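Teaching note: in complex prediction, the entire set of molecules is handled at once rather than each chain in isolation. The prompt given to students was simply: 'Predict the structure of this complex.' The entities are:
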Amino acid sequence: MYNFHPYSGGGKIILALLLEMGRINPSDELRDVVYKCTECGACAVSCKFLNTLEPLEIIMKLREKLVDAGYGPMPKQQQYIDSVKKNNNPYNEPHEKRLDWLPEDIELDPNAKVLYYVGCTSSYRREEMAIATAHIMNAAQIHFNILGKDEFCCGSPILRTGDTKTFKEFLNKNLDVIESKGIETVVFSCAGCYDTFKVDYPLYRNYNFRVLHIVEFFDDILETGHLKLTNEVPLTVTYHDPCHLGRNAESYEEWDGDVVDLMPLVSINMPPKPKRTGAKGIYDVPRNILKKIPGLKFVEMERIKEYAYCCGAGAGVKSAFPEFALTTAKNRIQEAEDTGAGALTSACPFCSTNLQDAIKESGSKLKFYDINELLLMALGLETKALKKKMVEAA
Amino acid sequence: MALDKEILKEFVEVVGKDNIDDGEIMTNAYAYNWCMEIFNYMEGKEPIPFSPIPKAVVLPSSTEEVAQIVKLCNKYGIKFKAQSTGLGPWNQPSTDNSIIIDLRRMNKIVKIDAKNLYAVVEPYVSGAQLQLEIMKHGLNCHMPGAGPQVSPLASATSMNGPGFTSPSTGHSARNVLGVEWVLPDGEIMRLGSLGLKNNRNWYNGDGPGPSLRGIMRGWAGAKSGIGVFTRVAVKLFPYPCSTEFKLDGCSPDYDFDIPDFMRVYVMDCGTFKYLEKAMLRIEEEEISFMCSFMSGFAVMAIFATSIEDLMDKMAIGSMKVPLVVIITARTQREFEYKQKVMGMILDEMKLNDIIGTLYTPNPIFYAEALRSNLGLHGFIATGGFQSTKGVCDTAAVCLRSTKKNIPMKKKYIKKEVIANDFGEGHWMTSYESGHYFHVESPTMFDQTDQSSVEGMAEYMEASNQMDLLKHLGAPFFVEGNKLHKLFGPHMSNYHIWLRKIKQAFDPNEIADSGFYISAQEESKEKS
Ligand SMILES: Cc1cc2nc3c(=O)[nH]c(=O)nc-3n(C[C@H](O)[C@H](O)[C@H](O)COP(=O)(O)OP(=O)(O)OC[C@H]3O[C@@H](n4cnc5c(N)ncnc54)[C@H](O)[C@@H]3O)c2cc1C
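The expected output is the structure of the full assembly:
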């Protein structure tokens, strides 16, 4: 069903051309093809090995066009957007419950310059990620704060399904709050929020704080010796690169050059225009962390870094086309199993959910841990739930 | 026009509802192809990048399904056009009474016989996929200059076949062994040793009885005009050098160590006469992995990864008649021997190798050569290109064709309709250690600019006329009734025989022959 050419990046460029030339019109049929894509960006990496094509940007523009024409997003995705507008999160959860994940023993510092932006998925669905992150921050004696009721959806699920107007509202809401607090560094355990802040926000509005994914932050702390990993974690682990932390987490570089005609029909950019190739994704940092965990054996999958397969959940696919999301994740699980690893880890709550769904669905024996959970184990700070998972794994 | 509901139902019974689509979006998307505008213009149509819209697109998963689809086409008088990886205008239907059979679900490497040096592949296996798997056995395959992303099956059975490694890996037409072929009436035919009654296997393309390989594809391939090829065995070769690589970093800036035993030479031969002598001399020694003549501009391009990246390679660009040779070996001793021979030839002919002195390539160049990706570097300047010329003959004929082409090309460069390569943009390679040669003139134009499209088309037509008048051999793209009619009478009336083949295999014209020849002369199919 997903095999026809228009489901590929190249095929979507053709759809955009057809639409521009008026050979097709927005329709439900078109919407179905355009939204069956996780916007993982693998097509863009391949296209930019030698060329300058931007299939991912074209896919995002196609969605924007469909939204403007009244065809996008998919009904399920619209429900998420409506919920964000109403509850500040896509899960139809009350805003007041945003802090329910927060354990009582976590120490926050209202004057901290470091902000942990938790995100909707870690707050409401993958609480273990938020809990692990907060515990490690405390263990490393980092003064940090969270936004609590002032935290709103980062807008990623809205942007990626094409509703740019609503996205801008949430971008402004978040930036206004963070800037008003004099924050210097914002850290994220959600790769999706991180990518949105780092890559997409500056396209609409600049801001004056530093953004880091938590793996970057913790790796620095491990390097400087502020955190000591003392406990053995006797697992063979493979790592899944989230698209939002890997190939898509590459900022746009400003270019203020000219297009110079070299000769008729041939022009060049002077100075050369930086290409977003996916090479500057966060690839080595999570691997460094895993390699520092005592007793842990790290093994690689066949497709990694800029060529990693997507987990299948992104850009609204999990909500609108759950079967498609699961099929994609099962592929990745098979690849993870082929390494001989007993555990799979990653650094994104969407990947976490979808890969765990696929583990269950395919009857795999793999155990999934967020990378922060592995760190927690190495620090000897396992939560009850984590202990239970470890016993099961053993 | 979509398929009639009842007919659609029958197709659905063959492939399942998820694998056929006759909706507006899919059929329109499949009507697009790269460079279609130029072929439209040449046929007096609007120069847009779209062919007639197919009635439906079907995705079969097996030979049996292909055969049933073709039988349904026969039953209802609908034409079909098969695609493997599907890039290029030759994949497009020539009429709106055609379906497209997109073979992308047939994507398996069926067999690797490392001992007998062949692999059996389905249509949607790319050269890159095959190369990766056979490398594990220390083996390599031939790939066309189109690059590692195209289908070895399509190249072997249906279209062209020259590649950058042709001196050592030949031509696709000469690398085909057993073939599984769904004829235009839906019958399944097996060629070569695959057709044996007992102990059938893939190892040989000929016999029993007369070989049908020539009928199947000839020089340029039938481009889906004579049925659908579903599995093919292709010859394998020893991997040219060490298969142990060090590769770090990310796309596109890999950190690659030149593998053991590989070396590139670039020399300026100064004149075509001397180039001919040098190529023949080097090829006589059977030492090259690659041996190509290209313009200075093209040599700059194969070493570059972007147009901006061309700028520091001017030392190459100023070369008059550059020759690029790569030698490879599997042992140190073989490597030393080949370098010694190459050194002797360079001394003997007083040729200077500029590598390491005037220019040192980024090591990734060697990886690109090994994976047959150099051709794609040639097209970093603009998006549209077509080749004129394409003669396959002696080095002397190829170079005569080149010489004649330069002033003609310059005329169109002056009109600013094609990109300026000083008229010198040609690619000539030897095959099988100088057994024969081929030259073509890749020419870049702007597909989005109507005057460029028109100018390129006029240049292609003028070049064809010149090939005929000056006896420069048949160009690559002699396809469709109009061109066969033009060239046939000058070439032993081959077009009459080609038509007889079409008539014998496909009297009802079910296999779309827009890029082949129609069974009936009066057919309105393409010309
Ligand atoms: C930039 C560029 C450079 C190129 N350089 C070269 C070159 O150096 N050497 C060279 O040989 N060619 C070259 N080509 C032409 C062409 O791409 C190649 O010949 C290629 O090998 C075809 O393989 P494919 O997978 O692209 O086949 P497709 O594009 O899918 O098909 C090619 C033709 O064969 C037919 N066909 C495909 N599969 C089947 C099948 N299973 N059964 C029946 N008919 C079939 C199609 O209808 C089409 O007419 C180049 C093309 C491009 C775009």
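Point out the following to students. The mean pLDDT of chain A is 96. The first helix of chain A runs from residue 9 to 20.
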